Amino acid sequence: MVQQMQASIVGAVAIGSAAERGRIGPTIIFMFFWATLVYCPINCWIYNPNGWAYKWGVLDFGGGVSMELCAGMTGLAYSLFIGRRRGYGIKMHPHNVPHVALGTTLLWFGWMGLSGSGTLANIRGAMVMINTHLAACAGGLTFLVMDFRLERKWSLVAFCLGAICGLVAIAAPGFIGPSSSIVVGIFAAAVSNFTVAYRDKLPWDDGLDIFAGHATSGAVGVILTGIFAQKSIASSDGFTVIDGGMIDKNWKQMYKQLAWVGAGGTWSFVITYLIMIVINRIPFCSFRVDSESEVKGIDEDQSGETAYAPDSYMFRRPPTMIDSKRGKKFRSTFGRFSSHPGNQSLSPKRPKSVEKPRKA
Length: 360
Fold this sequence. Notes:
With 360 residues, this protein is mostly helical. It has 13 helices and two strands; from the N terminus they run αααααααααααααββ. It starts with a helix and ends in a 30-residue tail after the last strand.
């Protein structure tokens, strides 16, 4: 049941890279084949006792590769295949910052339960939850400070992005201590921040930063597990036995982690791209909407609904207000929407002048 939930989450995260230009129907078909050919094999490699990564001794507690890197590389393949959005390059701002904060809060809380439940009810579960919280805090603060270096603003969105990076990175290191989890959060947020800063120079359009937030942070978490994994932390649940990482002088653990990152990332990208090539050749299964639908909007084109209808109040300009002292006209902040046809119903109308008949 947990694997079913994780598969649905990974698929939903990956499809974020198709924002504003992807079709729903072909995506549903894609999800079935993607889960069968991409997600399930990778999870079998690491969680099945007969999997090659499990037998080899790779350390990936909560899915740093099988969930996070897989989602990021799937999103990368998806965005490369369908191309860039219309108007790519124009600086766009977050649609609703309070919703960003709310979503981050829900993810933060849920992530602690998801990670902590992986060890059953024991001391190690409490340690994993503490590490999850610390990594998110460290990631949020790191991303916030690095963004301030560029924008000179303390951005709530930047903190939320950094917190997500910390949560993603700490998925794999279920074998480390609290101090190490802070280092993991810092490194993950820093790498992700640099990736976001240079995304406009990259040959793909990842509007929701799926690759930067999940692929890079997931890879960082898995790699750092090879350094900070401790035998004493892993054995606190009473049954897990590992050789530890480089901190326990297990030097060969690092190349195992690197090989795991390379194998999982390559498989996710290549198989995803091949699946999309095949499905896209099926009649009426093009992954990208046409240019007319893209201009109209994906919500209206694909579901027949919009978050904000063009004739709703927020897109209309209230009547012009006149300052009684200065005699000047002041328009509200919605004045920039005055050109919309919906404004006509609220715009003040001047009565037509009626010429009086002349007396003979």
